Amino acid sequence: MNKSKIVVFSVCLSVLFLTFLGSCKDLKNEEIPVEILDEHMLDRRVNTAIVDSLIRQVYVPIYSDIYNQTRDTRTMLTATLSIRNTSIRDSLFVSTIDYYNTQGDLVRSYIDSPIYLKPMESIDYVIEQQDNSGGSGANFLIDWYSKKQLNPLFQAVMVGGLGAQAFSFTTDGIELERE
Length: 179
Description:
single chain, 12 strands, 12% helix, elongated, DUF3124 domain-containing protein
């Protein structure tokens, strides 16, 4: 290896090391405001009336925090709700995306009118790690419909860490009987 490659390698390694050190500062004592990310919002409203008999409902469990060692110690997690249209030909229509907390109270509604996902399109909503509004028993209720038989995928991915260990896990949505 020649000297110029060694210098470039050393500079890159130094930058990576300094970046790592800067990201390791203790954030426990700092209060970080919770910002609700909406950059994944689709500006694609549906103009047609919804046929109530077509609407199906899915429940997706979210763990925005989990117990760690005792009931009084919790680890906050980042959770992502993912809605995926698995059809290669037909659109998926979504009329409700509501986030509920452990007590069953509505925390927020993510859409105020129906939207659609094109074939093979996905959309996701992030519950940030600092957002403790949901709790360990948080969940999403999603109302959706289609003009043809579809099998969309509704999942949540939770990511967190304890010390130097990181972990992630998923949950799947289950279809509910509409009342």
